[in-house]
Structure formats: structure tokens, C-alpha cells
Amino acid sequence: MKTLKPLALTLGDPAGIGPQLAVEAWRRLRLSGEGAFFWLGDPRLVESAVPVTCIGSPKEAGAVFSDSLPVLPVFCEADVVPGRPDSRNAGATISSIRLAVEYVLAGRAGGVVTNPIAKHVLAATGFPYPGHTEFLAALCACPGEEIMMLASPQLKVVPVTVHVSLRRALDTLTTDRIVSVAKAANTALKRDFGIAAPRLAIAGLNPHAGEHGMMGEEETTIIQPAIDRLRAQGINCQGPLPPDTMFSANARPNYDTAICMYHDQALIPLKTLDMAEGVNVTLGLPIIRTSPDHGTAFDIAGPVTGFCRADVSSLLAAIRLAGEMSIYRERRG
Ligand SMILES: NC(=O)c1ccc[n+]([C@@H]2O[C@H](COP(=O)([O-])OP(=O)(O)OC[C@H]3O[C@@H](n4cnc5c(N)ncnc54)[C@H](O)[C@@H]3O)[C@@H](O)[C@H]2O)c1
Ligand SMILES: N[C@H](C(=O)O)[C@H](O)COP(=O)(O)O
């Protein structure tokens, strides 16, 4: 990792596993020399588990990181009961994300790493965004340019349609959208992952990629024209590929990223193959943002002082990837 600036780790839903994971990630990284992060959260949730230093600015994080968890305080309004989300704490969850983005946009932190939120808890307070991805784009003043990628050592996937119903995903799938998402993914693979000549695999939508029109027309009318336009622009892509076989062990080495037509077409293979090492990355933004691939896991959340059943691997992978991405960006200028 070894970022020059500390990373900003958000609160997430305080009743989920986020606070436990923040503490566990600090325990694992504090002496690793990989770089520092600070947690934008409520110090009262963690101070009986680990030494905490409340900081007033991200630049203080590096000096204290080996001895204590740097916390930039964002206080919860209501008592936090692990496993029982409370929409009175939605304000703290949202403020934490907003502040993290402000610090990165101001050049005071290297990237945002988000802890999981429960979208319905925020929605209950009128929060208008279906997830971090869309909220972050709004905070960065580039709504509509956000691209979701999930990345793991075995697979990278990008869904063309994201947090919408399957019916709406089908209605909004267009050639233009596939082209713009694939182009953004291609740029990000070079800029943030150091892949000089990215190879994209474009998924079909229907069984057997439509079986020559027998099982659907979208491959011919929407997806193939997108592939033709991408190739005309010099982008290396293959498809439309049958979605049931393109994620097999034999197929995966043939491409760097799969461009998928809807959320679960992308996320099911990724999370099935690599839940522990999967990282959610938002591309298309001026800032770096990563996140673990799992959710709030209310069913296993417990007090931070107690036994931690949550696996911290995905958060560690998210922190490390944010660090690597910031290094790639710095090198490219
Ligand atoms: N990045 C995010 O903010 C994000 C990502 C995914 C889901 N969510 C939200 O999280 C909430 C719960 O979603 P869900 O139940 O579908 O998925 P989930 O990932 O929270 O939980 C699915 C299962 O995996 C287990 N699990 C998850 N993370 C784990 C970990 N680190 N260690 C051990 N076990 C773990 C849980 O205990 C649960 O049994 C939803 O509101 C969803 O929107 C948020
Ligand atoms: N679709 C994501 C997943 O299942 O991992 C998740 O809901 C997170 O989305 P945001 O990063 O937009 O919150």
C-alpha cells in the first residue's frame, strides 16, 4: 500500500460490522509499514477495545498510527446496538462519507475506503441515493459518470446497469451505455491497475448469448453494435459471450475485465469465487474509492470489545487496493 497521504475509512452503518472491522484492520496494519488510515467514526464505539487518538486533521494520522487508531470524530445520535440498525444514526453515516470525500477532493487524504451501509436505513430518512456509488458521484459533481467495478485476484467485473430492478435494467440497457461503461473501464484499467493494453469481455444478456436470435435479440440489436463501436475506437474487446461459461476457470485468463449487463450477472460470479478478497471500486470519479465486497452483516455484528466473527480480509484488500491505485495515479501524473 504505502500511500503518501492517509486513507479515509468511513463509519458505515454503526450497527453493522464496520466498527469491528475498522479496529481489526488497524490491528493488522499498524506495524506493517503499508501506510496509514484514519476512521471517520464515533470514538465511543471503539475506545474500550483499542487505544484511540482523536485527530482534527488527516495529516495527524500518520504520526499516531502505529500506536493508536486515529479517529476523526463523527458522533452517532442514538445509542448503537450491534445488529439493530437505527435510522437516527443515518446522519452520522452520511456525514462520514461526505467528510471523507471532502478531504480527498481537497488533497488531504489519499482515497476513500467505505465501510458497508444498509441502503434501506438511509432511504428511510429521505436519502435519495441507492448506494455509495451514486452518492459519491454526486459529491464529486459528476453524477452519471460513476462506474461500479468489483475486483479480486481471480476476476474483475463491471455491471453496465447497477442499483435498479432487473426489469428496469433491461429497459435501460443501451448501446451508448455499454460503450461509455466499457470505455471508462478501459481507461481505469490503464490508469488505476497498470494494465497497458486491457482486454475486455462483453457478456451477452440472454441464454447462450441469444442463440442467434432464437432466445433474444439484445445481443444483435444492442450489444454487438456496442462492440463494433468499441473496436472502431481501438478497444480490445470480445463478445457477446455466453454468460454461463465466460466466468469459467478456462475462460477467465482470456480477459482483464468482464463487462456485464446487470448487477447480479457481475456480482454473483465475483462473490462466489472470491468473497474474501473481493473489493468494490468506483471508477469514473476524480477520487479513489474502494470498499469491501460484503454488506453490513447485521447477523454477526457484535460489540467491538467482544469476539469478532467478521472476516476483515475484504476490508484489508480494499485498503491495499486504494493504496495501490493512488500509487499508479501518482506515477501517471
Ligand atoms: N458496500 C456496501 O455498502 C454494501 C455492499 C453489499 C451490501 N450492502 C448492504 O448490506 C446489507 C446486508 O446485505 P446482505 O445481507 O445481502 O449481505 P452481507 O454481505 O451483509 O451478508 C451476507 C452474509 O455474509 C456474511 N458476511 C458478510 N460479511 C462478512 C464478513 N466480513 N465476515 C464474515 N461473514 C460475513 C453475513 O453474516 C451474512 O450471513 C444490505 O442493506 C445491503 O444493501 C452494502
Ligand atoms: N452492489 C454492491 C455490492 O453488492 O457489493 C453494494 O450494494 C454496494 O454498493 P455501493 O458501493 O454503491 O454502496
TrEMBL record:
Transmembrane segments: none annotated. The keyword Glycosyltransferase does not apply. The keyword Ribonucleoprotein does not apply. InterPro entries: PdxA, PdxA_fam. GO terms for molecular function: 4-hydroxythreonine-4-phosphate dehydrogenase activity; cobalt ion binding; magnesium ion binding; NAD binding; zinc ion binding. Gene3D superfamilies: Isopropylmalate Dehydrogenase. Keywords: Cobalt, Cytoplasm, Magnesium, Metal-binding, NAD, NADP, Oxidoreductase, Pyridoxine biosynthesis, Zinc. It catalyses: 4-(phosphooxy)-L-threonine + NAD(+) = 3-amino-2-oxopropyl phosphate + CO2 + NADH. Binds 1 divalent metal cation per subunit. Can use ions such as Zn(2+), Mg(2+) or Co(2+). SUPFAM superfamilies: Isocitrate/Isopropylmalate dehydrogenase-like (SSF53659). Its cofactor is Zn(2+); Mg(2+); Co(2+). Its EC number is 1.1.1.262. Substrate binds at residues 132-133, 271, 280, 289. Homodimer. HAMAP family: PdxA (MF_00536). The active site is located at the dimer interface. Belongs to the PdxA family. This is 4-hydroxythreonine-4-phosphate dehydrogenase. It comes from Gluconobacter roseus NBRC 3990. The lineage of its organism: Bacteria, Pseudomonadati, Pseudomonadota, Alphaproteobacteria, Acetobacterales.
